[in-house]
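DM from R.C. (forwarded with permission)

"hey, sorry to bug you on a friday — could you get me a structure for this? deadline for the figure draft is monday and I only need the backbone to look sensible"
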Amino acid sequence: MKKIKLIIPVLVLGLVVISCTESDDQGSGEPLPNTVFANVYATSNLNNSIAAFDFTANGIQLRQFSTSSDDNEGIFYNKEANELVVNSRAQSTINTYSDIDETASGSSLSLFLSSDTVLESPRDIAVKDNFYIVSDNADVDGNPDTPDGRFFIFTRDNSGYTLRNIVTVDYAVWGIQLIGNDLYSVVDKTGDVAVLKNFIITYTTDVTATPDKQITIGGITRTHGITEDEGFVILTDIGDATNESDGGFQFINNFVSKFDATPNGGTLELAGNQVRVSGSLTGLGNPVSVAYVRADNSVFIAERASDGGKILFFYNVGAGGNLVPDLSTPFPGASSLYYINR
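My reply, with the result:
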């Protein structure tokens, strides 16, 4: 049974910062001082920090760690192994850090596994069993006028990561989400979403793939982040990338059914199908990554542009609109985040 119902009192209690200044001795601070029932982990592409928002009965406690990379984007937490898996844009690798719960705030995370340096511009990561899929938006053909992108498929075993194959597509990529065996990806620079069915078992060699379907999500100018929980999909809209106040997000119930019912190349209209959050009170400018918990309609956003970067929590989104975040905390260069229920 999900414990996320405790988010109401946790958000009311607010944020308790457990962190160290740069002058503190490395290793000071305390690991997980209270029982933690959920976490949001966030990365930055301006520095080597990873933030951990620990949900406890006494409020949300913030720990911050340093990593081996000063530009990270795309993150996954494996609670069974107590590991963080993070894309490094600076090192062109997947990095895996161990003993997260035992690491004190202000300390360096322990790097114990990395892939080969094959990535170019990683943006997101999706994990299923021992398969790790990374979306990469580097320009494949060297022509900026022709959209393209790639998905790097790695396998992992006790000896490390192995690049199995690369799937190239003729659209720009960013956020990705596995729903069952199907890979849904945003089509960057548009309001579209594309799907590649049975992705892992269908595309096993280096290949250029055509999506099984691509549709436009009505109301979105330029989408970046995508996530799913219990049939609900949330998509972020960064609007004009140079505008720090025109962002938003939309959530869609029964997403797969609505996606399937929309003709290839068609539009899933906003009215009657989606709920949108945007406006001057939201703090949304360039929301680049999103996580969602259906149990109480909680949305977590990595906001890249507004105020230089911040993490936003919205509780009980309901009918949407111009909502004030329940929590807004500065996090320069906020690039991606991941929610895990304990």
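R.C.: lifesaver. The CA atoms of residues 136 and 175 lie 9 Å apart.
me: no worries. The first strand starts at residue 15 and ends at 17.
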